[in-house]
From TrEMBL:
This is RnfH family protein. Belongs to the UPF0125 (RnfH) family. It comes from the Bacteria. Transmembrane segments: none annotated. Pfam families: Ub-RnfH (PF03658). It comes from Undibacterium danionis.
Length: 114
């Protein structure tokens, strides 16, 4: 299949942006989905355009105080996405990072792994 320059694509295809959706299911490895969205789409518009099964799963995560981020920077639902953005759904922390590090250091000190 021959590729065409962007200026020769149909108007509706040329105005699509490539983004990634990144989320994790209960501490498992992250899921990365490549999506094509309309230029000028907000986070909320992308979220509402997802298939119903995935949207339902992500809505449950969001009800647990999860937030949206783009490349690790917290964003609101009205943020307009750009081409190449990685939209992340961030769960609330289950442990404070400093406390977890202290417990891990103490455990490693007791077992002699330091």
């Amino acid at each position: 299949m021959e590729s065409k320059p962007v200026d020769q694509l149909p108007q509706n295809l040329a105005s699509l942006l490539a983004i990634q959706l990144c989320y994790s299911r209960n501490g498992t490895a992250p899921v990365l989905l490549d999506l094509k969205v309309a230029q000028g789409s907000t986070i909320d518009q992308v979220f509402l355009s997802l298939n119903p099964t995935l949207r339902h799963e992500l809505e449950q995560m969001l009800s647990e105080k999860a937030t949206f981020a783009v490349f690790g920077k917290k964003k609101t639902r009205d943020y307009v996405l750009s081409s190449g953005d990685r939209l992340e759904i961030c769960r609330a922390l289950i442990a404070q990072p400093m406390d977890a590090r202290r417990r891990r250091a103490l455990r490693e000190h007791k077992t002699g792994k330091m």
